[in-house]
Amino acid sequence: MIKAAVVGASGYIGGELVRLLAMHPEVEISAVTSRRYSGKKIHKVHPHLRGLNLRFTDSYSFDADVVFLAVPHGTSMRIIEDYMGSAKIIDLSADFRVSPSLYEEYYGGHLKPELIDEFVYGLPEIHREEIKKAELIANPGCNATAVILALYPFRGEVDEAIVDLKVSSSAGGRRENVASIHPERSHVVRVYKPFHHRHEAEIKQETGINAQFTVHSIDLVRGLLATIYFKMNTNEKELYKKYFPYLKEPFVRIVKEKGGMQRLPDPKYVIGSNFIDIGFTYDERNQRVILFSALDNLIKGGAGQAVQNMNIAFGLDETLGLSYLPVYPV
Ligand SMILES: NC(=O)c1ccc[n+]([C@@H]2O[C@H](COP(=O)([O-])OP(=O)(O)OC[C@H]3O[C@@H](n4cnc5c(N)ncnc54)[C@H](OP(=O)(O)O)[C@@H]3O)[C@@H](O)[C@H]2O)c1
């Protein structure tokens, strides 16, 4: 069995990691940390996990083969060296995803820029072979996963894309914040970040495409939809061919129906699963490609992708513990 520890287990990503790892046939959870809830049973914070015999600890030294860091960005870089060498590390923060120069441009100063190069960017559909040998894995951002996987087949052909993102409230984490309380968040379609979103850095690095995001907070608890626009002289048949390499991917589904209400991806139909749904259309009149990409930010956009990376890095079947279908209706 693989011994797994979750640092930051009281957060949304931490809770989702515990849920997935508790159902994984090859994993035994050896520690779940929280500074605020140390000593408390896990269901005091995550009521849906009632019945798991786990208590939070504020001891950050434990026996583990893999450590998941589910802490805010800026925190992983402070604590990472405590675990390096003794366990594989899967970091869910943004600290080690992009090169030092992109980090500086989008986030500011880094405490350990020399470590960034030691990390593999944990997007299995693109970096599977490197992940197999990796000790240090930087799990991608949720928005970045959606946009990179949709755009990756167009790298080298497109310089720029406009991205409209609609994101759920859980993407902002569990910390208290007036903008996220129910009266403020309910029924909202709020522009959260009109431009220069930090996840643009990951897209630039992985695809070479300058993707300009506008992020909107919408009235969903989980899930996100990316709508991506760029000019190209093509047709729908050619667009479909671009995605042929994904047909062998266990967690990528191409959604492109001729009729009906669900012709193109919608986060409603991936919630609770590790799937990413990608679709496309072509506006011939304007020679514009429009791509759509939907995922559950806490699963393929976070904890599920981290478990997928763990499976690959430990030589397990990539889908182990992840082959559940979405929950419906949600
Ligand atoms: N939410 C998403 O959809 C999503 C998707 C992909 C990636 N991510 C990334 O995953 C990470 C976790 O996100 P989240 O949404 O779960 O955030 P969250 O709900 O705010 O949880 C973060 C947890 O980290 C712990 N923590 C904070 N500072 C710490 C420190 N100095 N030392 C140890 N633990 C500390 C906190 O636990 P205690 O205060 O109880 O110790 C807290 O529960 C973030 O970097 C985020 O950007 C999030």
List the helices and strands and how they pair.
Blueprint: E1 2-7, H1 12-22, E2 27-33, E3 56-57, E4 66-69, H2 76-79, E5 88-91, H3 100-106, H4 113-116, E6 120-121, H5 124-133, E7 136-138, H6 142-151, E8 160-167, H7 182-185, E9 189-193, H8 200-207, E10 210-218, E11 224-231, H9 236-242, E12 252-254, E13 276-283, E14 288-295, H10 299-313
Parallel strand pairs: 1-2, 1-4, 2-3, 4-5, 5-7, 6-7, 8-10, 12-13
Antiparallel strand pairs: 8-11, 9-10, 11-14, 13-14
Helix pairs in contact: 1-10, 3-8, 5-10, 6-8
NADP nicotinamide-adenine-dinucleotide phosphate binds at residues 7-8, 10-14, 34-37, 70-73, 75, 92-94, 141-142, 170-171, 173-175, 297-298, 301-302.
Characteristic key phrases:
alpha/beta; 330 residues; seven-stranded mixed beta sheet; globular; 10 helices; binds NADP nicotinamide-adenine-dinucleotide phosphate; seven-stranded parallel beta sheet; Rossmann fold; Dihydrodipicolinate Reductase, domain 2; 2 domains
What is this structure, in a nutshell?
The protein has helices at 12-22, 76-79, 100-106, 113-116, 124-133, 142-151, 182-185, 200-207, 236-242, 299-313; strands at residues 2-7, 27-33, 56-57, 66-69, 88-91, 120-121, 136-138, 160-167, 189-193, 210-218, 224-231, 252-254, 276-283, 288-295. With 330 residues, the protein is α/β, with parallel strands linked by helices. It has two domains: 2-118, Rossmann fold, CATH 3.40.50.720; 142-295, 2-Layer Sandwich (Dihydrodipicolinate Reductase, domain 2).
